[in-house]
Amino acid sequence: MNIPFEILRTPAAMRARAEYLRRDGRRIAVVPTMGALHEGHLALLREARARADVVILTIFVNPTQFGPNEDLAKYPRDEDGDLAKARTCGIDLAFCPEAAAMYPAGAQTFVEVRELQKPMCGASRPGHFAGVATVVAKLFHATLPHLAVFGEKDYQQLAIIRRMVRDLDFGIEIVGVPIVREADGVALSSRNAYLSPEQRAAARVLSAGLEAAARAVASGECDAAQLLALARAPIEAEPLARIDYVELRDVDELTPIDRLERRAVMAMAVFVGTTRLIDNRVLLSQPVAR
Ligand code: AMP
Fold this sequence. Notes:
The chain is an alpha/beta fold. The protein has ten helices and nine strands. The protein has helices spanning 11-23, 39-51, 79-87, 99-102, 121-124, 128-143, 155-167, 197-202, 204-218, 224-236; strands spanning 6-8, 28-33, 54-59, 93-95, 147-151, 173-177, 241-250, 264-272, 275-284.
């Protein structure tokens, strides 16, 4: 039976709807986003559509994951445009709460994934991942999903959510979707809208660096310092770009790696002008046989 499309605005209304659907035996997938939808988000929605009876899109620009000097106020918002795009992927419901509905006055409870939140983006954005884990936990409580779909673009976020779901027994399947890129390799991001044409051209250095490292791995390079130097070179050569971090880390624990002998991800954050972009690539997806 088809579900009439509806936008839910409060956690209580969303949860009542999800409880009803669960009692009716439906398999629910949720796709959490901050809106400003692009093809990367639509890939997540299509994956969810293929795996569930009911697809819930959430759009919430979550204030607790933005630092005081970050882009919360100017983050692009276009609910009508987003819903029109999402409906081409066959979503059933949208959960679009206001901040006041998600965080009642006096809210003081946070979820922290203590070690995974520390390095990489967590080092540059203190408190960011506590905000992310907390809001995702709340979105899960509101939408009661069987599965949730996230992009590998936010690699550390995905690792943190997997760990939270495991540690706190959420019993939700977490599905990761590969990064959707533009033809020139730049990862799609809502923040690309902040870039001038020159900055957009300069943004190619992130994926170019990852590509250089991947090519070296394919020809046998295992030394992390060498691989990191190769990845940094095109970024350092670009006057509009400034490295926040470029690191090689264990795929699950996000601990630093010296030699490419176990599964590793190269992850980076780079400022292009004042816009902070992230990208990553898994460089060794299977441990080396010894
Ligand atoms: P955001 O709205 O930027 O918070 O992202 C919502 C979800 O979309 C997250 O799971 C992101 O990882 C995912 N996402 C964002 N950009 C991409 C992309 N280029 N490819 C795949 N997934 C993406």
